[in-house]
Amino acid sequence: MNQTLIKTLTDANLLEGKLPSETELDSPWYVKIILAFSGWLAAIFTLGFFGALFSSLYKDISVALVIGIVLITAAYFLLRKSRNAFSENLALALSLAGQALCLVAMISYTQGYTTSDQWSVIWLLVAVIQLPLVVFMPSYVHRVFSAFIAAVSLAVALFLYQQSFALPTFYSALLMLATALIWLNEFSFPRHIEKLQAVGYGLVFALILLNTTKVFMPHGLLRHSYLSNHTGAWFQAWIGEFLFTAVTLYVVWILLGRSHPKPNIKAVCLALGGIVLLSAISMQAHGLMTGVMILLLGFSASNRVLIGLGVISLLFFISHYYYWLGDSLMDKSITLLILGVLLLLARWLLLTLLPTKTQEAAS
Questions:
Q1: Which residues contact 60 (CB under 8 A, 6 or more apart)?
Q2: Can you tell me the distance from the alpha carbon of 191 to that of 11, in angstroms, rounded to the nearest whole number?
Q3: Helix (H) or strand (E) run with residue 280 in it
Q4: N or C: which terminus of the chain carries fewer CB neighbours within 10 A?
């Protein structure tokens, strides 16, 4: 580790925090994920310990709320004082237990007369609680978790508000846009790169979850059987796909503008036209454009984690569409065949119509 370079960047206000020692090593991301999972498991035992210690914990709302706030505050000071793996894992457990107690207090306060709108307010409060934790908690894993919970909780709150399709659709598009903006501008704020990346990963995980799991209804997320039983919902589904395509086109446009050398008009038209054609053909394969956007963002920043998430999400979306029983096997096979031919044709056009560096040097 080059201490002189780090000190120079810190003096220029391009890095924040204390100067790391030569023996200090950062844990790999997969180790952090294992520690985070251990923290979530430890939070369950911590919550059970306090529940057994204080018999009135689940009965008295004020006791649960006070202890929850105390646990979150203790986690904050523990993270500020020490940054080793054990303390970060313990602080994450304390914070999760504290958040669970605050949620129990909110549910207990409305117990007996909860309606759909009141549950919407509860989920909205859960999202609001996560926002200061994203900003102030000095932990990378904690920020990822808080950003993920905030995004998912807000999506659930919007759906429960009116049991409608329109609000979650527009919210998913806005979440997709926010994710793109964070990853496109992560290097624009050098002192906050770690925070932006943590929030970006949390939003990416939320996007994948909101597009692949049965969060809002038993027939899948805002899709398929639900749409067939609601008048006009098919039109809103098309609006949603149009918004997802618009965000992906924006990402492609920004990336083309940043490339060196600047692409000619032929390359720009091929790229934008290919995205539009891909979106039109994959209209029934919900979530495909989200996977494409994640993959593009990963390639643009040479981020292997984003590339891996994009590839996994694309495989999941395609597999989900293939095994979905809403269309016949023949229709799905034709759609996937057209998609495959389109992608091969796009590759051939790029290699044929756009000169490579070797061809330019030869000419």
A1: none
A2: 12
A3: helix 265-281
A4: C
What was the pLDDT predicted at 265?
Answer: 81
Residue found under tokens 């009141």: 118
Residue pair 183/247 in contact by the 8 Å Cβ criterion: no
Question: What digits encode the pLDDT tens for the residues 226-251?
Answer: 344 444 555 566 777 788 888 989 99
Q: Reduced to 3 states, what is the DSSP secondary structure of residue 214?
A: coil
User: Alpha-carbon dihedral of residues 280, 250, 348, 267, nearest 10 degrees?
Assistant: 130
- Which backbone phi and psi does 324 adopt, to 5 degrees? -75, 135
How large a percentage of the chain has pLDDT more than 90?
Answer: 9
Encode burial over 333-354: b for 16+ CB neighbours within 10 A, e otherwise: eebbeebeebeeebeeeeeeee
pTM comes to 0.76
Residue with tokens 């996937």: 336
Query: CA-to-CA distance for 10 and 334, rounded, in angstroms?
Result: 56
